[in-house]
Amino acid sequence: MILGDTQTASFSVHLVEIGAHAVGFVTQEQGGCRFFAINNLYRALEDQPFDSADTARSAALELRRDADPSLSVLPTLAT
Question: pTM of this prediction?
Fold first, then answer.
């Protein structure tokens, strides 16, 4: 994007981690944020809107908890 002298761009990204593993990131947008998966296990959350980065992380934790452990390289995390 090319901006004129009076225009500014603002872009905010937050990493979503479970334990020591990055599983995705959220980008801020009007009214909340949107999730983008880094790990294939979290593709079900891809491009979904969330109220906040915390709610996106909670959804990722729930997805991880429900997933077959053999599908992920992530260790099982204690809850």
Answer: 0.68
